[in-house]
Amino acid sequence: MAKLYFYYSAMNAGKTTTLLQSAYNYYERGMDTLILKPSLDDRHNTDVVRSRIGLETNAVSFNACDDLLELTETRNQKSTLNCLLLDEAQFLTKSQVFELGEIVDKLKIPVLAYGLRTDFKGELFEGSLHLLAWSDELIEIKTVCHCGKKAIMVLRLDENGVPLNSGKQIQIGGNDNYVSVCRKHFKSAESTKM
User: Fold this and answer.
1) pTM
2) Per-residue DSSP letters for 72-97?
């Protein structure tokens, strides 16, 4: 039975690596997948999903106006899909999360969505909010704070490594801009110089 899965975590927990491993598992068994990535994530080629450890594969990029159900139906007509995998799911719109549910319910294709739960202010992203509400399965991928406790929050850092508490919700970046921390260090910002 197809389900909508949301794999969530703080940054640097291995979400993309896990996505790539899942895609490889399908490939190894001769099954066809569709890997999607928001075009908003332009750190690398927009048509490539790449993990921090160097693994990568081709992906189809989409923007906030794209209908993911229509995109998947079109692709499924060319070759039967066994799974849809989606990176950076926090950037989805509410309607796109609904479309993922339609892919599961109408097309009977499992959807594995990977993304952040919260932003650097501790607030839910639109995509994460609706994935948390509408997914069949919620799976946390864990990472650790510099103190050794489980990291559940993300700090955005300025060019000097000082945590920021204001700015746009979405600013694409990696280890140079963000660090995952436990709730205590998120609240106290003891990690002012990482």
Assistant:
1) 0.87
2) HHHHHHHS--SEEEESSGGG--HHHH
